[in-house]
Amino acid sequence: xxxxxxxxxxxxxxxxxxxxxxxxxxxxxxxxxxxxxxxxxxxxxxxxxxxxxxxxxxxxxxxxxxxxxxxxxxxxxxxxxxxxxxxxxxxxxxxxxxxxxxxxxxxxxxxxxxxxxxxxxxxxxxxxxxxxxxxxxxxxxxxxxxxxxxxxxxxxxxxxxxxxxxxxxxxxxxxxxxxxxxxxxxxxxxxxxxxxxxxxxxxxxxxxxxxxxxxxxxxxxxxxxxxxxxxxxxxxxxxxxxxxxxxxxxxxxxxxxxxxxxxxxxxxxxxxxxxxxxxxxxxxxxxxxxxxxxxxxxxxxxxxxxxxxxxxxxxxxxxxxxxxxxxxxxxxxxxxxxxxxxxxxxxxxxxxxxxxxxxxxxxxxxxxxxxxxxxxxxxxxxxxxxxxxxxxxxxxxxxxxxxxxxxxxxxxxxxxxxxxxxxxxxxxxxxxxxxxxx
Length: 438
Prior knowledge:
Blueprint: H1 2-23, E1 37-38, H2 40-43, E2 45-52, H3 62-77, E3 86-90, E4 94-100, H4 106-112, E5 118-124, E6 127-130, E7 132-135, E8 138-141, E9 152-155, E10 161-166, H5 169-181, E11 187-191, E12 194-195, E13 215-219, H6 223-235, E14 242-250, H7 252-281, H8 283-305, E15 309-310, H9 312-341, H10 346-381, H11 386-415
Parallel strand pairs: 1-15
Antiparallel strand pairs: 2-4, 2-14, 3-4, 5-6, 5-11, 7-8, 9-10, 10-13, 11-12
Helix pairs in contact: 1-8, 1-11, 7-8, 7-9, 8-9, 8-11, 9-10, 9-11, 10-11
């Protein structure tokens, strides 16, 4: 028994040291150099939810298209300089975008989700209709889908910005046909059903001066608008329209206040729990407090290794799991007390106490796991479900680790007292036994 307990103790110490090296320092641990990721409500930023319009999509293609949408949005956001953007699917037709530490204008939010497909149109009897050409007997509309992904912005000789593009092979053929017949006429540029507007607020519809074959440029845009449009064209176009259905912005200052308050509340709570356990349960309370330290370090290490994003709700789940970890110890210690009252030795009481408490600990934690699963599913299906998912994830991890610390760590540490003189002083292991009852 002693050899088995010694091996368990060595294992626990090894896990604790490794976890501590992952956690400390908090910003970049010694091992793996991982940081604790903070949610938008803690570090500030913007949370957007886009809804895709599948009305014009062939049935059964939705999943493939939504994956493409996520990839395009990721390409569009990367140039914004966001270090840890979160872009993920939610349900069948929603995309969640979280941009920590960033504040966007309404125009930038709209640009992220706009189709970014330019369509060239010609004016026929006062109406703009798609400009088409024929390739291999098929009529095709001239759009930016025929651009090579190498557009850029430069300054013309007149000092105004221009968006320079290059046609691919099919685009060159279409452009040659269309501009060849429209010399001296206007060629409108539309984005969706709306004309592309210039810096002056007027539609961009240049007059064709010559046949355009290989490349061309668009003028009239502001430098910022031309640059953003160039980035989006190079990142790819969205296959379906997107609409912003949810938006939340948190300032970095408010997020910093939340972090300070959360740390203070967490530390005060943990210290009070440890003081209560040591005062009420004496030596087992001290063991539980040591197990609680092990628990906290291990959970934080797992958060870092799994890249769990901590939110206010997630911290709430973590703190709640601390209470549940102590609750498991309370069940064990109460069972031990009953065994000690019958005259059993500390070793026998410890073994019986853990065995009798295990079923209650197991059943209560399994029901908690079921609830966290339901919460995660609900959070994944509602628009503003990120806090719900964060709470579910941190609570699940915390409860799982609490079972390990209560059953393995606490038992291993208590066994260190078996066979010592302290084991004969049973009043130190129960708050209810008097010295003369031992």
